[in-house]
């Protein structure tokens, strides 16, 4: 069944919301539930994956783009990805490197299935139910992978939270220039989408961790409140931007 696109345009505001708010908030909120509230990684993963499924079902059921709903699903993938990664790396004992390899393999399998389905990787052209399912599967795995990569770079590599954020930021700055060399914009989008997760993971840890551990000392509660408020402001802004489009749709 063909449906109207329900995904946002890829603009500067999209990336700001993805990195500053949704991704970083996912890291701090996931840690808030699993660590600060002592729910545990396994139980937190079950809870957050349940929230992801519930929000995704709602997203798949609607026919148009709703900013609040879309970013709720993104946030759900971010928080679920944090606890799922921590469960694999810590509770299951795989460690950051092996955990990241497992997740990278799973993500590659999704993209392989996506390719053989004959559907475009361009997120701006996704207008079918199956295409959207592949899109969200890739997002969930990329956010989980990003958490493992962020933890690996920050802890095992010795870069620390700030060093990891600076390293990933440097790579992301270079990506737009690669478009001029003929590299596919769709490929660059997915590379950026994967890399923004470890950036958010490192940034989330940098904001929430104690000063003695190399962070800013806001804690998971303070950081989550700050980032959550920022996300709400941006969602309100994007909803306000869409008012002319909604009026036109209603008139049509």
Write the layout of secondary structure elements.
Layout: H1 12-36, H2 41-61, H3 67-91, H4 95-116, H5 129-156, H6 160-178, H7 185-208, H8 219-241, H9 243-251
Strand content: under 5%
Helicity level: over 70%
Low-confidence stretches: 247-251
Q: Give the count of helical stretches.
A: 9
* Domain unit count: 1
| Arithmetic mean pLDDT | 81
In N-to-C order, the SSE pattern is: HHHHHHHHH
Shape from CA axes? globular
**Main pleated sheet:** none
User: Gap between N and C termini, in Å?
Assistant: 21 Å
Please state the CA-atom Rg, rounded to the nearest Å.
Answer: 18 Å
- Give me the secondary-structure category: mainly alpha
Number of strands: 0
Question: What brief labels describe this structure?
Answer:
disordered C terminus, 9 helices, 252 residues, mainly alpha
Short recap of the structure:
With 252 residues, the protein is an all-alpha fold. It contains nine helices and no strands. It has one domain.
């Amino acid at each position: 069944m063909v449906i109207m696109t329900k995904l946002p345009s890829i603009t500067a505001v999209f990336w700001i919301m993805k990195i500053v708010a949704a991704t970083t908030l996912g890291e701090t909120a996931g840690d808030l539930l699993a660590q600060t509230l002592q729910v545990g990684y396994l139980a937190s993963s079950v809870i957050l994956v349940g929230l992801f499924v519930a929000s995704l079902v709602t997203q798949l059921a609607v026919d148009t783009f709703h900013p609040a709903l879309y970013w709720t699903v993104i946030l759900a993938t971010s928080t679920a990805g944090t606890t799922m990664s921590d469960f694999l790396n810590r509770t299951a004992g795989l460690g950051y490197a092996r955990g990241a390899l497992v997740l990278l393999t799973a993500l590659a399998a999704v993209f392989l299935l996506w390719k053989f389905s004959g559907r475009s990787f361009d997120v701006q052209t996704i207008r079918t139910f199956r295409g959207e399912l592949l899109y969200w599967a890739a997002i969930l795995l990329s956010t989980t992978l990003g958490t493992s990569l962020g933890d690996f770079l920050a802890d095992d590599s010795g870069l620390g939270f700030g060093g990891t954020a600076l390293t990933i930021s440097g790579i992301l700055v270079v990506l737009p220039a690669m478009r001029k060399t003929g590299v596919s914009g769709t490929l660059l989008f997915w590379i950026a989408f994967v890399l923004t997760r470890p950036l958010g993971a490192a940034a989330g840890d940098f904001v929430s961790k104690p000063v003695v551990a190399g962070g800013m000392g806001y804690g998971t509660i303070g950081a989550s409140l700050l980032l959550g408020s920022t996300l709400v402001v941006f969602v309100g802004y994007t909803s306000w931007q869409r008012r002319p489009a909604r009026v036109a749709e209603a008139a049509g």
